[in-house]
Amino acid sequence: MIRIKCPYCGERDHSEFTYGGDASIKYPSLDGTEKEWVEAIFFRKNIFGKQLETWHHASGCRMWLEVERSTKTHEIFSVKPCHPEMKKILEKRNSNDL
Asked: Which of 21, 23, 15 is nearest to 57 (CA)?
């Protein structure tokens, strides 16, 4: 069982989340060539070990998260909001709770 520590809701079972995909993919610009888009979408590495992934907390706060997880052991090393401004908002919220 995978437990993901949501920065907003706390530790939750992975069944509350939906897998979004590989977070390390750099997509081409919207006016990129068809070849660039095909390579970005269909030709990916099958990583065995640490990987950056996106997960959506669909049954919770609905936040998109970037999770660093081992595909071999399912150990989670880090979790942070995908949107950089959300990290600042959460840090401010947590400091006001003290």
From this structure: 15
